[in-house]
């Protein structure tokens, strides 16, 4: 498939804005002060644009290939539409927790977004040792809102079917299926670890119960079309604002970058968050800050409580309360926790042995990185071995604490 469309450049952004009234309303394309390429992502091009009156917006364009690797890895630019539509759907449910979409350009795959430059990416804040309290609970509430609001529990049956059809995202789902579930066990040559961690990666690949767990994880990911999930809800997909001081609540939390969105299992988003809290804990411990490591793992409890409370509250008045009654809601919550442990295990392992790493671990010097990576891997294996037995969040914490706290 060939994709011919004009890419955004510093030279054509002004005329792009003046040609689109929805954009020109928010910023004067004829009087721009600054255009900055700010993309730190692997996939897309992202520009921050500001006019002389100080108004600004973000333009994010998908290229027909993976930006990180270049034209050798083609990828549908239509992923930008998945991002736009999922942000709009999620924003309709939880406007305060989702970045605002100003416009989506279907011809050039350009997403115009509100500028969140007064926020920072949560992963960066975490890696700098900041504490934005309350973010984890808000994200639990976000996952619950999406779980109910985009599913048959909170939307009309026909609408859900239409949304699910529009949200098919096989090309990006396959990336997750390969990188997150299959390749940590069956390396096709893309995995990398430090020499000190080679034995740990080999032990993971030889762990039959881990492989069994990954088969269950992958199957659920591919077949459980519950809700329009975010699909890539790590701490780099969340922006936070606030002092970052211990004890200070964040005053704003915004989810963004949802191009992997599709109808999938709700627990996948929770598991992604849990895994990323585990990386933050492993980093803190490696840097000798046990208190912070415990704080990072407590984010699991906070996200879980935020999710369970909001989900059970929604169950009181969702579409069908005869069969889908309070007992049903409690069963869904219990199953979601088990599956979240399973997905967390997958996400933890893939970021250690797989091709795509996380800065939390990668920016540790090798002498600290190797033991931190080992701790995450053994924690992942322990979670995967016991996920079917998890019946409360403290069961999950017991497993993680044993490997990630002193
Ligand atoms: P990719 O899909 O390529 O990973 P992202 O959506 O993650 O792109 O954006 C890359 C980076 O651009 C983010 O990590 C963040 O620093 C910045 N960014 C993205 N959206 C916004 C926004 N609305 N406001 C401010 N900065 C943003
Ligand atoms: Mg990104």
Quick overview:
The chain is α+β, with helices and mostly antiparallel strands.
Descriptive account of the structure:
It is a single chain. The protein folds into two domains: about 35-115, 2-Layer Sandwich (Phosphorylase Kinase, domain 1), CATH 3.30.200.20; about 120-405, Aminoglycoside 3'-phosphotransferase, Chain: A, domain 2. With about 400 residues, it is an alpha+beta fold. The termini are far apart. Helix 11 packs antiparallel against helix 12. A hairpin with a 7-residue loop joins strand 1 and strand 2 (about 45-50). It has helices spanning about 15-20, 20-25, 80-95, 120-125, 135-150, 155-165, 170-180, 200-205, 210-225, 265-285, 290-315, 325-355, 360, 365-385, 395-405, and strands at about 30-35, 45-50, 55-60, 65, 70-75, 100-105, 110-115, 120, 225-230, 240, 250-255, 260-265. Helix content is about 50%, strand content about 15%. It has a five-stranded antiparallel β-sheet, covered by helices on one side. A three-stranded antiparallel β-sheet has the order 8-10-11. A two-stranded antiparallel sheet has the order 4-5. Bound molecules: adenosine-5'-diphosphate (ADP) and magnesium ion. The site of magnesium ion has 3 residues, from loops.
The hetero molecules present are: adenosine-5'-diphosphate, magnesium ion
The CATH homologous superfamily of the largest domain is termed Aminoglycoside phosphotransferase (APH), C-terminal lobe
CATH class of the largest domain: Alpha Beta
Q: How many domain units?
A: 2
The name CATH uses for the topology of the largest domain is: Aminoglycoside 3'-phosphotransferase, Chain: A, domain 2
Which H/E pattern describes the elements? HHEEEEEHEEEHHHHHHEEEEHHHHHH
* Overall number of strands: 12
The value of Rg in angstroms is: 21 Å
The class by helix and strand makeup works out as alpha+beta
Termini distance? 53 Å
**Main beta-sheet strand count, sense and barrel state:** 5 strands, antiparallel
CATH architecture of the largest domain: Alpha-Beta Complex
Chain-averaged pLDDT: 96
**Which strands sit side by side, in order, in the main sheet?**
1-2-3-7-6
Please count the helical segments: 15
State the share of residues found in helices, binned by percent.
40-55%
What global shape is seen? Answer: globular
List low-pLDDT spans.
none
């Amino acid at each position: 498939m060939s994709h011919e469309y004009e890419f955004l450049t510093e030279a054509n952004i002004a005329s792009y804005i003046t040609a689109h009234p929805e954009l020109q309303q928010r910023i004067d394309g004829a009087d721009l002060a600054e255009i900055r390429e700010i993309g730190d992502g692997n996939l897309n091009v992202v520009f921050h644009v500001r006019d002389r009156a100080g108004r600004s917006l973000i333009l994010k364009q998908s290229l027909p290939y993976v930006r990180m690797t270049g034209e050798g890895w083609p990828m549908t630019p239509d992923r930008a539409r998945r991002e736009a539509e999922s942000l709009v759907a999620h924003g309709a449910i939880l406007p305060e927790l989702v970045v605002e979409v100003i416009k989506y350009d279907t011809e050039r795959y350009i997403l115009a977004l509100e500028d969140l430059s007064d926020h920072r990416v949560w992963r960066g804040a975490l890696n700098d040792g900041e504490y934005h309290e309350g973010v984890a609970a808000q994200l639990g509430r976000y996952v619950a809102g999406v779980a109910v609001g985009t599913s048959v529990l909170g939307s009309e049956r026909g609408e859900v079917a239409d949304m699910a059809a529009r949200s098919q995202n096989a090309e990006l789902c396959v990336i997750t299926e390969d990188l997150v579930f299959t390749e940590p066990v069956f390396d096709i040559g893309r995995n990398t670890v430090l020499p000190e961690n080679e034995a740990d990666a080999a032990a993971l690949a030889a762990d039959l119960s881990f492989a069994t767990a990954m088969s269950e994880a992958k199957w659920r990911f591919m077949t459980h079309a519950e809700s329009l999930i975010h699909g890539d809800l790590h701490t780099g997909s969340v922006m936070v604002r606030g002092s970052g001081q211990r004890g200070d609540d964040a005053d704003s939390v915004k989810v963004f970058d949802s191009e992997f969105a599709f109808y999938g299992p709700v627990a996948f988003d929770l598991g992604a968050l849990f895994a990323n809290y585990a990386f933050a804990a492993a980093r803190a411990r490696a840097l000798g800050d046990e208190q912070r490591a415990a704080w990072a793992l407590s984010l699991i409890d906070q996200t879980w409580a935020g999710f369970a409370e909001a989900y059970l509250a929604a169950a009181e008045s969702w579409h069908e309360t005869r069969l889908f009654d309070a007992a049903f809601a409690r069963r869904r919550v219990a199953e979601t926790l088990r599956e979240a442990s399973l997905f967390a295990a997958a996400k933890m392992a893939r970021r250690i042995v797989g091709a795509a790493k996380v800065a939390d671990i990668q920016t540790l010097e090798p002498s600290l990185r190797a033991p931190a990576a080992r701790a995450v891997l053994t924690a992942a294996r322990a979670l995967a071995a016991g996920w079917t037995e998890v019946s409360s969040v403290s069961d999950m914490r017991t497993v993680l604490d044993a490997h990630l706290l002193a």
